[in-house]
Amino acid sequence: MACLSEHRVSHLTWDVVRDRLAAGAPAILPVGAGAKQHGLHLPMNTDLLQAEWLASRAAAEIDGLIWPTLTYGHYPAFEAYAGSVSLSGATFEQVAFELIEGLLKCCRSQVIVLDTGISTQTPIAQACHRASEPGRCHHVKVYEGPAFRSAVKRLARQPHGSHADEIETSLMLALAPDQVDMRRAQPSPPLPGGVVDGPLTPTDVASPNYSPSGSFGSPQLANLEKGRELLAAMENDMAASVTAALGR
Predict the structure, then answer these.
(1) Which candidate, 213, 191, 192, places its Cα nearest to that of 202?
(2) Helix, strand or coil, per DSSP, at residue 115
(3) Which of 32, 104, 107, 226 sits in a 20 to 30 Å window from 19, CA-based?
(4) Are 109 and 246 in contact (CB under 8 A)?
(5) DSSP 138
(6) C-alpha distances in angstroms, 199 versus 50, 70, 92, 185, 216?
(7) How far apart are CA 210 and CA 214, in angstroms?
(8) Per-residue pLDDT in tens (0 to 9) along the chain, 248 residues
């Protein structure tokens, strides 16, 4: 694997970036929140850590160039928790669109958007659709790959979950164990009425999405072995997506 600094445009001079792009290097734009609550046991930059790890793996696979991670996005479900900020869907779509357009202008090859979010998926998909060359914009939804979804179905033991839960915590135990404090992992309350769409809340006990910790699911069920399987599945899905995007 090449040195990470050889893939990050932030570590290179502009003429080196120019020459790499002219030689056909794909552009990689990671998307991952830098300030979004992830329970009491995971840091607020959990998505950022995942996005940058995956981007480094993708860049090594396809000899791509990584642009700085888009760390602000559309995350309305978490605004009730201190420090979690969100752009409107329209604003985020426009930001993503303008970044994608800029990359399409300077890159001869493909532009690959690595999306670690859920609520970010629709705005990014719309931004890619609006792009001047949508055929060169590839939206990789890292939580939607078939191998990953199969692994989740096989490994999950929690009755419900979608955020800072058994699955995401297991991933982080494999990816960045020093950032996980399992002593503080708290499950969200039971859902007698089933899962209901809507923002999480740390204070409204009558809400079906009440979660005083910010987790939605059962993070205490996470472990390293699950995380390794999940991360391998996610990486395999991503590798398949980016190589298909390049016609390899």
Answers:
(1) 213
(2) strand
(3) 32
(4) yes
(5) E
(6) 22, 22, 18, 20, 11
(7) 8
(8) 344 679 999 999 999 999 999 999 999 999 999 999 999 999 999 999 999 999 999 999 999 999 999 999 999 999 999 999 999 999 999 999 999 999 999 999 999 999 999 999 999 999 999 999 999 999 999 999 999 999 999 999 999 999 999 999 999 999 999 999 999 999 999 988 788 889 999 999 999 999 999 999 999 999 999 999 999 999 999 999 999 999 87
Residue with tokens 């494999």: 174
Residue whose token pair is 């390049």:
246
In the chain, the amino acid numbered 222 is A
The first and second tokens of residue 82, run together, are 């201190």
Are 69 and 55 contacting, i.e. CB atoms less than 8 angstroms apart?
Answer: yes
Measured distance CA(112)–CA(189) in Å, rounded = 38
Residue type, 132: S
